[in-house]
Amino acid sequence: MISKPLVRYVLTAALRDKLIVTLALMIMMGAVVAVFMGSASVLEAANFAAVFSSGGLRFLGVIGLVLFCCFYVRRSFENKEVEFLLSRPISRLSFLCSHALAFSILAFFIAVAITAVVGIVGRPDTAGLLVWGASLVAEFSIMAVASLFFSMVLSSAAGSALATLGLYVLARLVGTLLGILDHAPANWFFAVIGNMMKIISIGTPRLDIMGQTSWLVYGVDGREASLKFLSDASPYAYWMVEHLGLAGFIVIQGAIFSALLLAAAAHDFMRRQF
């Protein structure tokens, strides 16, 4: 089902487009800025550097990965590369799975690079850094497959990138939105909005629980705050965190949503006429 030559082809395209070099330079610049901002703190400069670098570099990595994936796929359609590759002995499902694997490999290396830089800059809690890095790999993998899905469904590279980043913002803010609605005024309007938000949160990756900056400073013991809005809005996430722990939740959620997005992309791609 996986075409190794096609995976190498996509990874070669990432090198050809200078994605790795550009992200490496941006990560180094972000690390320098984080160290500078952390040095302005009178106390706990290392913790401030860890907080600034982890937050900034995470968003930088997501933006770079999403832009490359979306523009690469749309360019492949416009240049007829997709039709050429499908004329070879490769199925459409193999085409999608190979691209998803290649994008996930890119996501893995970007997440590892960012985790290493955060570890050097901020000298965070070791266990917290490992869990944070693992969650970053899962988070980036979900967004890589989401980029593949939206770029397959939408005909515009910019539109697919914006849709993917919109999903990412929603997934990062869903816990905050649920918290606001939990303390909203008691009237019918906010009741309707609250129920709609709970339904949306069930089908949205709970990225707000993953990659928490507090893990870098305080470790992973203080995770109870993450579960506050899970029992009502996301029973599956609450069950996984309670029974499988954070590591199990990170792995299972990454696998579930990546598989769902890949299946949705395959459904659309199989029906498309060339």
Describe the structure.
It is a single chain. By secondary structure, the chain is mainly α. It has one domain. 81% of the residues lie in helices and 0% in strands. The protein has 11 helices and no strands. It has helices spanning 4-16, 19-39, 45-78, 81-86, 92-122, 126-153, 157-182, 188-202, 213-218, 230-233, 235-271. The mean pLDDT is 81.
How is the secondary structure organized here?
Elements: H1 4-16, H2 19-39, H3 45-78, H4 81-86, H5 92-122, H6 126-153, H7 157-182, H8 188-202, H9 213-218, H10 230-233, H11 235-271
Helix pairs in contact: 1-5, 2-3, 2-5, 3-5, 3-6, 3-7, 5-6, 5-11, 6-7, 6-11, 7-8
Can you give keywords for this protein?
single chain; 274 residues; mainly alpha; 81% helix; globular
Q: What is the overall shape?
A: globular
Largest beta-sheet characterization: none
Low-confidence stretches: none
The quaternary state of the protein chains shown equals: single chain
Secondary structure class reads: mainly alpha
What distance separates the N and C termini?
Answer: 21 Å
- Summed up, the helix count is 11
Helix content: over 70%
- Please state roughly what percent of the residues sit in beta strands, choosing from under 5%, 5-15%, 15-25%, 25-35%, 35-45% or over 45%: under 5%
Radius of gyration: 20 Å
How many structural domains in the coordinates? 1
- Spell the H/E element sequence: HHHHHHHHHHH
| Strand elements, count | 0
Average pLDDT, all residues: 81
